[in-house]
# Entry
Amino acid sequence: MLFKQFKFRNKLLASFLAVFVPLILIGSTIAFLQTKKILETSIENELNQTTASLTNLIQTSATISIQNRLWAIAEKNLDIAEYYYSKHRSGLLTREQAIHTIEEIFLNQHIGISGYIYCLNSKGLVIIHPNDRVKGTNVSNFDFVKKQLQTKEGYLEYDWKNPGESHEQAKALYMVYYKPLDWIISVSSYRGEFQHLVDIKDFREEILSFKSGKSGYAFVMDEAGTALIHPSLQGTNLLKHSANAQKIISEIIEQKNGKLRYSWQNPTEIHPRKKIVLFKYLPEFNWIIGSTSYENEVFAPLQTFKTVLAAVFAVILVFAVLLTYYISRSVTKPLDKLIQKLEAGSQGDFSVRMDYESSDELGKLARHFNAFMDRLENYHEKLNDEIQKTHNTQAALVENELKLRGLFNQSFQYTGILSPRGILEEVNQSALDFGGCTEAEVLYKPFWETLWWRHDPDSQKKIKEAVHRAVKGELVRMETTNINKNGNIKDVDVTIKPIFNTANQIEFIIAEGRDITNLKQAEAERRQLAVQLEKSQKMEAIGTLAGGIAHDFNNILSSIFGYTQLAEMALQTPEKAKKHIAQIVKGAQRATDLVQQIL
# Structure
């Protein structure tokens, strides 16, 4: 309760003393520990870098030494090949004898423990090899052989597995090219046997020259614990140096890579000292490289750091108290004014501004507040405009939606919108009224399974096939039947049309139907009237034809009748009667011809 009655500057000072003094103490402690850790990390990094550098030094020196060794052997065998092949050119040996002698000499040489010499020609065919299963084979498909065929001379590292071996082994070779025989003479050795090709004297002095602190040093030992390089115990088996040394060296040999803290006493020292070692294993030589440093030399600067840290703490404390008091006074006054402006702004007065001019944070705060209020006032005006525009847009959208919905529902055609899978998603009121159904009964069902087609499985099948054709992008028009709300079957003209989007993909399908029942009935009636008219015209023609025929028959019958009477009167005169009878026959013949024409 008493703290709440303090003024702001007193609260700030009390808070500082209550919070920052313990924090400074904790910070000082952390700084001390961190410094100690940094020193430890620094020495570890230094030892790690040294170990890495020494590793690179040994690997580089060893590689150079091995390259020189392999190069010397390769050059020597190149001379041997040239010597014996020159005897062939001189006529002292046949070509086969010279090549056989060279092959025997090459195969009788061993590089390290199990390394050997082999030869291949520029086409990748193995000419000489100690393994008969490899000799005579084409190995040009191997990556390292491709490099050999490309360069023909130089040093190369690769992995190789001879026939009969269980796994690949790392190897290195040096090759020279003997042109007269088209041989790439390759002197190869397994990299795991490099220690037998390396002369440790080549880099002993560089290893011994390393120093960490006053008395830290580097060493190299093998897996048996023998110190190959050591400033004071070189050539000694460290496992037998002492009981403590046996424990430490055994742990290093077991881990192979890592770091270790331990006590160690060199032959020239009276007491053992704490030290740290970082070590790394070189598998190609079976060596362990270590870099060491003594802890008392690493942490020597910490005591001076303690004294400096205490003095800095006291100065910071006094300065902070004075600075806190001054800052509290310079902050409270403009803060009060800012609070007043904020209260006015919170009540909706977006015109309030701060008139505090300063280059400090409070001045920046005042400028940011003014800029904020400017943007807020501007945003407020724009927001009102946007709200009005939004209301207008929404009203226009609603109006357009109502218009489109009215056109859709009031259309005399039965219209539906299908998904690309043929599912009915929208239907107009005309279609619902025709079928006497509701949206809930037909929407979100396959179009061919809706109520309009329930009367006829064939109609359902036709509609399903038409929808599938439309899904493929085809415009389909067909005539089929619907059943209306009264159960009457109606003829309809159906069009199913796919609608494509800008990506030329089907967005939806429009199905339209028109009732053509009355149209088809009118067409049937028209055809019936046409038939009746045709019959009437035929009857009229027949009547006209019958009148003409009757007149012709009447003329023929009158002629026959007249000549018959004349024949009767001329019976006494046969010649005249015969002429009259001939005319009768002629009239009968005309009647016969007329009947044939009618038929």
